[in-house]
Amino acid sequence: MVTGLPMKPIRETQYHDELNLARLNVILATNRTKLQHWQKRLQLDAFGEIAVECTAAKGHVVPHGLDNDVLMGLITGAVLQNVEPGGEIRLTATELIRLSGLPDCERVFQRLEESLERLQWTALKISEAWLDEGKQHARSIKLSIVSKHWVENVVDATVKNPGQWQSTTKLVIRLDPELTRSIRIGYIRPLNSAILGQIKQPMGRSVYRALSLLRTTSTTSGAPLYMELPLVAWADHLGLTHHLPELNFVQKIQRALEPAHAALQSAGYLKEVKYSGRGDAKTVSYTFAAEEMQPANPEVAQLLRPHLGEQRAIQLSTELTPEHVRTVLGQFERLLQTDYSRKVRSRPGLLHDMLINPGKYNSVTGLPEKPAARQPIRQLLPIDDVMPTPNQAAFEMTFKVVSRTWQEATIRQYKPRLWELYKNGRITTFDLSQQLSNLDPSLVDAQLDRWEQAI
Question: H-type helices in 135-276, by residue range?
């Protein structure tokens, strides 16, 4: 039986979605439901019809509300542990709660157990809408998100109140093999944890994730700053329409969406929400204030995995093209066949530098134009997301990369605070290069405050 790798220490988590489940949006956004069955058939993007049927086992209701956060935690855990199809995620209840972006308190443990039960005892029938290897082949499948889960330490003498989940409860969770296979090929996307952290209600987080996915699958070049959607289809996609009476149906949809819209505007993700039209033809338009994080490119992730760590490969796969990666890998292999290879202290570090600084290297030989230059290979950016000791060179290099995203003067005012956070182990280079660089400059002060106040 294949099991996942040990969980790395969780600090500021980079959350992930699996793109199929994110696009299909199989968990109702409502906080409560009595439904045991629902189905939907609609189209919102350029990749074809979404057709899903969801059926809960007898005695259960369909997944809803907080279950979407738990799903995010399971996917993020599978990414962090590099779980293979048929393998298991092994982590404590507290670790899963933190990966799900939920508050670590006693009442959440019971809700977590109930959520995993719903995810296991609900069958999804997906008709010609499950995509493999990027966006090339849609097919029909049946799955339950969680195939099986159990508690590993029920006889542990240190566990109080056996049977009642608590912080030290050790969980073993096996996801459906179709889902883990999709995660393994890199069909995932990073989520903006700074925005998620500001949205307190499950419905608001569900609307954010569904909306941000639509932006990244738009036919427009890049994530659009404006989007218009048919209101009834949008509400059906979110799972709101099952609970609303027919009288004043459209007005009730608007009222149901109001708290989520207010939370997204307060978090700095939405600038404006408008409605137009009448009756069933009514539309809702969104004007966005924040940039969107791009999905991973599965081909890039697969090319880099043999050479770099899982997290680093996924991060770079949101930024680089397959053509660029193939070119650099060719240069990298040629370099390792030369005498210069004896000087290399860290092959992953060298490859990372070649990928993000291609101009430093000769396109024919793959050798640095100035081999004895200002940045020795031994000081290149470490690949581990959680570094064992602070590294000034790593910080400076990452800061330089982030400076490309912003104007130099804008980011430089924060450099002393960022260095103190990094030096004291409160943040990692991954936090700098991925999470911080995707923030609007107006939100940086608040994010630094959260990092400085974190325990």
Answer: 177-184, 193-198, 202-216, 231-238, 249-266
Distance (Å, whole) CA 241 – CA 245:
8
Look at the pTM and tell me if it is higher than 0.90: no
Residue of 217, 220, 214, 223 whose CA lies nearest to 284: 214
Q: Report the interhelical angle of 231-238 vs 202-216 (nearest 10°).
A: 120
- Which of 74, 56, 68 is CA-nearest to residue 238? 68
Whole-angstrom Cα distance, residue 194 to residue 173?
27
Output the six-digit token pair for 286: 């969104």
Q: Which amino acid is at 174?
A: R
Per the CB < 8 A criterion, the answer to whether 85 and 131 are in contact is no
User: For residue range 42-57, what is the model confidence (pLDDT) as tens digits?
Assistant: 998 878 889 999 999 9
Q: Estimate to the nearest angstrom the gap between the alpha carbon of 322 and the chain centroid.
A: 21
89 touches 149 (CB < 8 A): no
Buried b (16+ CB within 10 A) or exposed e, 400-411: ebbbeebeeeeb
Q: Which of 71, 291, 6, 317 is nearest to 189 (CA)?
A: 317
The model's pLDDT over 393-435, given as tens digits with 9 standing for 90+, comes to 667 666 766 665 555 556 777 888 888 887 776 776 656 665 6
What is d(CA 223, CA 201) in angstroms, rounded to the nearest whole number? 25
**DSSP state letters, 35-72:** -SEEEEEE--STT--EEEEEEEPTT----BTTHHHHHH
Enclosing H/E stretch for 124: strand 122-132
Q: Find tokens 């009756």 and name the residue.
A: 279
The type of residue at 31 is N
Q: How far apart are CA 423 and CA 412, in angstroms?
A: 17
Other beta carbons within 10 angstroms of residue 35's beta carbon come to: 16
Nearest to 388 by CA among 351, 418, 353, 425: 425
Radius of gyration of the chain (CA): 23
Q: CA–CA distance from 228 to each of 46, 214, 267 (Å)?
A: 14, 11, 20
